[in-house]
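Below is how a single chain appears once it has passed through the pipeline. First comes the sequence as given, then the structure the pipeline wrote out for it. We keep one example in the README because the format questions we get most often are answered faster by looking than by reading.
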Amino acid sequence: MESAHYFNAQPGVPDVRKPLTVVLDGVERRLETSAGIFSPDGVDKGTAVLLDEVPDPATEGELLDIGCGWGPIALTMALRSPNATVYAVDVNERSLSLTAANAQRLGLPNVRTSLPDGVPAETRFATIWSNPPIRIGKQALHELLLRWLPRLQAGGEAWLVVQKNLGADSLLRWIADELGDSYDVSRESTSKGFRILRVMRRAD
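Resulting structure:
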């Protein structure tokens, strides 16, 4: 699969659904997947590191998965925080369809799939988890992060997983410089060649 496919609103390959069996939140789950999305054959290494390393999301309020794919991050957030609302955001409409279908399969009514512009402007997030799409290019990545990270609520946390050799440390410095003193930005851990970055908005 050409990586560009999953950056497109309408992937240029046929949407042929197939079964996907994965472990999420410690339990084997039977889901569905398709071509033309990110990591269609399972949980990618970076996302697996994120799910293994970060603390549980906020138990209530609004949570966000930036770039949901078939849904591993959003579904895990919803499983761990059933009283929260999880926004699963992607530019790829096939990803949104798959995440919605997989949430329904798991009986997770607290997952809302949305194009970026569909998220209400006033929504603020208690927790953001993301394996951000580094390969979209630096400028596009920076625009993406500056769109969502400032929407953390006071005391809210974002957890990002970034491959070390794809510029995780320079991205960390850039985030800290851009967001300024109202945020604590840190490298929390390193595992299997990936950095876990934490961004917390300080309480007002």
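The beta strands are 18-24, 27-33, 61-66, 84-89, 111-114, 125-130, 152-163, 183-191, 194-201.

See the next section for the split statistics.
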